[in-house]
Design a protein that fits this description.
The complex is a heterodimer of chains A (718) and B (153). By secondary structure, chain A is α+β, with helices and mostly antiparallel strands. Chain A is built from 20 helices and 29 strands. Chain B is globular and about 45 Å long. The chains are: A alpha+beta (718), B alpha+beta (153).
Chain lengths: 718, 153
């Protein structure tokens, strides 16, 4: 998250402010103590992250959720590097829900989000691998009566170079698990890396090209039934009445489950469940929001711009600077309501019994899912087992677990396991939305044309108040203001925050790129506007403001060099640039667009230069940059949900479109070689897309857009 | 109504309503979960399977219309020459991220290169625009299709 903008890896070892804040109520578990010697009979667990069976692949337990970002690969690489294993010798397995053993070292909870996985686990996973290696070597030393220092580990074996003796880890693991854990282990220096920094084929890919990979929807506990679901369309509404006479007659339908705010049809297969659902005659009590419209919500958000606001960041004296410098940019940027539209619709499979509960789900918050299930089931936490599956996309949607709660509520009424399948329409109409956002910007220019003051008011919901309260401080959501102060060296800065929540009953949450994606259009659009007003070329203008930010300036210079910035493009074409310093990383994006005579917008090319510190796997960095660009592009071009009669209007990919292959521009990723601590990449390229496009459209047409999605209709009128 | 359906060379008897989408027969009745549900209205392509070698959206293909056609799913596509080449290119070019849409992408791509040994960008757009990927793997899908097609020449 934006609040986690800086280098976190030092925090892990120093246990500095963030950690003590994050873990005030718990304890930091580095996962280096052996657990459960009971497990050692079959498979020795050298740490909670490493299980070594007598034969076969070493199991690496991955605390974070695999949602496409390559975390199985990333964390496995870190462990295997120190454990001296090739990646074809390991098997990545999902960690159970357990925040004490598998909580994120900085966030404290078992959360995969905010692009913090590698940053948080960079040191602990290598240390886990090194610790296990030391234990295996010690076990061999004991067995052979040789000094441990004379032995080494390579490719899953401990080797005695003096005699040529060697033993596989599997033969040493049971003994190793009984040895005392060393207090100190040395980690490799970068020059010794065999895996880190090298391209390796992703270990999760083979199962994803032949249908073998198991996502949440693929859970098939024996005897499972399938449920289709209708949730009250209006936010905060309720179920009034259901006529299920016709639905009950549908072949394969077993049961109609009526909840306070939803109806589920349980059947032998999802086809019958969906047919049964369509045959229901449901009457909803539309509730207090039943008359809401987009226009009303937009009006409320616009009105909220007037405050009252809480100061989030202050440098210098903005009021004095504004009084002295009347010339500048005054603008309001408007962001729409967004859904996530992960390819796998929300779902959850539950087998609830009097004495326990199994949950199969793909979630970014395994332990919260467990707690939610326990609460809905009326069971103690330790009676709930969460089987985390591959996620068919996360993007922040699966940081919430409303699907788990709902599925357990259905399961309470059903004998045996039940899979609750949301339709695409339910998925879009009951998302954890990125809610409306407003940015009011005032940038005043000094006599030299450079900014003398920067004032940015952020208006939007305080997600962190409920999601991670340690990041909600003194009335300020530290995430939603992330990056609002801009990365530029400006003497007087003020960021303030107006909390503006969605109507009660409408769930709002995190969306790829979190706070910085909300703020980047205003920040990078605003600085572009200032450059134009000052009559300075936009890249040169930014460079002058980055003398204290060498890494950000370096990615800017790289993208300028590689994107052909400044080269002639001809009429109707233009390039725009946007910078981002967040997630512990740096990015510079250049978009090239064409707007034809009829106002038709084509995105032709996007270049993104990134500095994310040490690269674990360059191909995954490139994948994530491409992915973030396309995700940002869909939102920039099309992302906007509307509300009528208190319900989301859009429901499928026809009226809530996303970018398809024919609209996808060429995307070029340029990576800065770096030995700095690793930064995040999962969300790094998303925030810059919309502002780079806005700035490119301005360059192409002279038309300055300040609202998303990009107003194609407005371009056509221009 | 009992239907006899040939899936990946194996015959299955399924007792479902005539209008039941093939998707749910595959996933929930037969238990082949490689074919994915994404939209239910043939707008995303996640459910793509082959019917006698032609790519169709199984979410809108009713079981009563399948008849004696041979159904092939992603679980068996590697047994065809085109499928094998597509899977190999997918691995070599690191196409996959979350992987959820990739079953459908692979089925569409395999059908494409079976009839077009040198697809142009326009050919790829025309066929593959029916398959959505939210991880944004499109540039790699394009490159991998070209590689898989080229290996068959």
């Amino acid at each position: 998250m934006g609040v986690l903008a800086r280098d976190l890896t030092g925090d892990v070892s120093r246990r500095s402010f963030l950690i003590s804040a994050a873990l005030a109520g718990g304890g930091l578990v580095m996962g280096l103590r052996p657990v459960g010697s009971a497990a050692a009979a079959e498979t020795a667990a050298l740490t909670p992250f490493i299980r070594i069976p007598p034969q076969g692949p070493v199991q690496l337990v991955i605390a974070s959720a695999e949602m496409g970002q390559g975390v199985y690969m990333g964390l496995a690489t870190l462990i295997a590097e120190e454990l001296e294993l090739r990646l074809d010798q390991v098997e990545a397995v999902a960690a159970p829900a357990d925040r004490k053993l598998y909580g994120h070292p900085v966030l404290g909870d078992q959360i995969t989000g905010g692009s913090v996985t590698i940053r948080g686990f960079w040191e602990p996973m290598r240390r886990a691998g090194a610790t296990a290696r030391a234990l295996l070597i010690a076990a061999a030393a004991q067995q052979w009566g040789a000094p441990a220092a004379s032995l080494r580990a390579e490719s899953g074996e401990v080797v005695d170079p003096a005699t040529g003796r060697r033993l596989p880890y599997g033969a040493l693991a049971a003994e190793a698990a009984r040895l005392p854990v060393p207090e100190q282990v040395a980690l490799k220096s970068p020059g010794e890396f065999k895996l880190i920094g090298k391209v390796q084929e992703r270990i999760d890919t083979p199962a994803k090209v032949n249908g073998a990979a198991r996502f949440g929807l693929d859970a098939r506990p024996p005897g499972v039934k399938f449920a289709a679901l209708a949730i009250c369309p209006t936010f905060g509404g309720a179920l009034k009445a259901v006529d299920d006479a016709r639905a009950s007659q549908v072949k394969g339908v077993r049961q109609i489950v009526k909840l306070s705010d939803a109806v589920a049809v349980v059947a032998d297969h999802t086809g019958a469940a969906r047919k049964g659902l369509a045959a229901l005659d449901i009457t909803w009590d539309r509730g207090p929001n039943g008359a809401l419209t987009t226009e009303e919500l937009e009006r409320r958000a616009d009105a909220a711009v007037e405050g009252p606001a809480v100061v989030a960041h202050r440098t210098g004296d903005v009021a004095a600077a504004e009084a002295a410098h009347p010339r500048g940019v005054e603008a309001v940027y408007r962001m729409p309501i967004l859904c996530h539209s992960a390819m796998e619709p929300m779902n959850c499979t539950v087998h609830l019994r009097p004495d326990g509960c199994d949950v199969w789900v793909g979630t970014q918050v395994a332990d919260r899912a467990r707690r939610a299930a326990a609460e809905a089931a009326g069971l103690p936490e330790d009676k709930v087992v969460v089987h985390n599956q591959f996620l068919g996309g996360g993007f922040g949607r699966r940081l919430d677990h409303d699907n788990v709660t709902l599925a357990v509520r259905v399961a309470r009424e059903v004998e045996g396991p039940v899979q609750v399948v949301w339709s695409r329409e339910e998925d879009i109409r009951h998302d954890s939305y990125r809610y409306l956002n407003r940015s009011r910007l005032s940038v005043r220019l000094g006599p030299d044309g450079m900014p003398a003051s920067w004032s940015h008011r952020v208006v939007g919901p305080a997600i962190m108040d409920r999601f991670l309260p340690i990041f909600f401080k003194d009335g300020v959501d530290l995430d939603i203001v992330g990056g609002a102060e801009s990365p530029y060296d400006i003497p007087n800065k003020l960021v303030d925050f107006v909390r503006h929540e969605a109507p009660v009953g409408m769930l709002t949450g995190n969306w790829r790129g979190v706070g910085p994606t909300r703020n980047a259009p205003a920040v990078e659009g605003g600085i572009d506007e200032a450059a134009h007003l000052a009559g300075v070329e936009p890249v040169e203008y930014r460079r002058r403001l980055l003398s204290k930010s060498p890494r950000l300036r370096a990615v800017l210079d790289l993208v300028v060099e590689r994107s052909g910035w400044g080269g002639a493009l001809g009429p109707g074409r233009g390039r725009g640039v946007a910078l981002l310093q967040d997630f512990g990383s740096f990015a510079a994006t250049v978009a090239q667009v064409h707007v034809d005579a009829s106002g038709r917008l084509t995105v032709e090319r996007i270049d993104c230069a990134v500095d994310c510190g040490v690269v674990i796997n360059p191909e995954i960095v490139r994948q994530q940059v491409e992915s973030g660009v396309v995700y940002g592009l869909s939102a920039a071009l099309y992302g906007r949900l509307t509300v009528a009669d208190g319900a989301i209007v859009e429901g499928n990919f026809d009226d809530a479109p996303v970018v398809r292959i024919n609209e996808c521009p060429a995307i070029e990723t340029h990576i800065v070689a770096s030995s700095e601590a690793p930064g995040g990449v999962g969300e790094l390229s998303t925030p810059g897309v919309a502002p780079a496009l806005m700035n490119a459209i301005f360059a192409a047409t002279g038309k300055r857009l300040r609202s998303l999605p990009l107003a194609v209709a407005e371009l056509q009128r221009a | 109504m009992v239907y006899s359906v040939n899936v990946n060379g194996v015959r299955h008897e399924v007792d479902v309503d005539p209008d039941t989408p093939l998707l749910w027969v595959l996933r929930d009745v037969i238990g082949l979960t490689g074919t994915k549900f994404g939209c239910g209205v043939a707008m995303c392509g996640a459910c793509t399977v082959h019917l006698n070698g032609l790519a169709v959206r199984s979410c809108i293909t009713q079981i009563q219309d399948v008849g004696s056609a041979e159904v092939m799913t992603v679980e068996s596509i590697g047994e065809t020459a085109e499928g094998r080449r597509v899977q190999k290119a997918w691995l070599e070019l690191d196409v996959v991220q979350c992987g959820y849409c990739q079953s459908g992408q692979i089925m569409s791509a395999a059908a494409l290169i079976a009839t077009n040994s040198k697809p142009s960008d326009e050919d790829i757009d025309a066929v593959m625009a029916g398959n959505i990927c939210r991880c944004g793997t499109y540039p790699r899908i394009r490159a991998a299709i070209k590689r898989a097609a080229a290996e068959g020449i």
